[in-house]
Specification:
Elements (H helix, E strand, L loop, with lengths): L2 H20 L4 H39 L8 H49 L19
Length: about 140
């Protein structure tokens, strides 16, 4: 038994003792009084649980509403550019050697396409003309 159960048991014992002393004519008033105390305890426990659940929901909503931080750092973008250029040399040689100018154009179209997709992924709104709201631009002033 925890502290609340012992308090409730004491209340019940006190109510029963009072009923024995006062007689049956006060029984309904004593029972009503005891039940009111039980209701108050239940209401307080429910209110605490509801407050806790609301706080947890607000915390979860606050966590979910945060905008995700960009996962691409400057190093990742720089590395992607270097890898793209390093792979462009052998792809150009293979494409140009096998199919001359059309092969070279296809190789470079693939390289440009991969870089465009990467740029669009790291800069949302780059090709639609809209900017992200979280970036401050000193040129707009």
């Amino acid at each position: 038994m925890d502290g609340r159960d012992t308090d409730l048991k004491k209340e019940l014992d006190t109510t029963l003792q009072t009923r024995r002393e006062l007689g049956e004519e006060y029984e309904s008033a004593l029972v009503d009084s005891f039940l009111e105390k039980v209701d108050q305890r239940i209401d307080a426990a429910v209110e605490r649980r509801v407050r806790r659940q609301v706080a947890e929901q607000q915390l979860t909503a606050a966590r979910d509403s945060r905008s995700p931080k960009p996962t691409d750092s400057f190093g990742e973008r720089f590395g992607f550019g270097i890898v793209s250029l390093v792979l462009a040399v052998p792809l150009s040689a293979i494409g140009g050697g096998v199919a001359q100018l059309p092969g070279l154009l296809v190789a470079w179209a693939g390289i440009v396409g991969v870089n465009v997709v990467q740029a669009a992924r790291t800069n949302p709104g780059l090709f639609t003309g809209r900017r992200r709201a979280d970036k401050d631009d000193a040129w707009d002033e």
